[in-house]
Fold:
Amino acid sequence: MPKVISGERVGKQGRLAVGCSAAVFDADRQSILLVRRADNGRWDVPGGYMEAGEGVTEACAREVLEETGLQVQVKRLISVYTNPHLLLEYSDGNHLQLVVLHFETESIGGHLKSNEETSELKYFSQSETAELEMTPLGRLRVNDAFAAQEAAIIRDTF
Structure:
């Protein structure tokens, strides 16, 4: 797990990293798929970092497949998150300021299965997510997805 460093414009000390995450709803759009992360035991939406030479929708679909076993199609951008006052410090020496693109997706195939990154997968209603141990960004992404706003939400702090 990375160490979170906060401070005035501390993001200048790192490099930008683009993350893509997904809101995968059930057929009735009443529950959202969350993964229990193996590294910290917290619940979160599936997602991860974009790789060089990859488009944002490709990255989102790849991360969902890797973490859940589901094939998805990106439908729309829900929100964009960044914070120039937060920096992630990894044990390998990388320092990253995140730019996270959060998408609504539609499941088009595959079967739910956990892996080395995810110890559990489950659909939760919005009220059920209130009781889960989540990061602040994870909770924000879930709530923004359930808000179902037409226009994308842009958050410069989280």
Notes: The helical segments are 56-68, 126-129, 136-147. The chain has three helices and ten strands. The longest helix spans residues 56-68. Residues 74 and 105 are 4 Å apart (CA to CA).
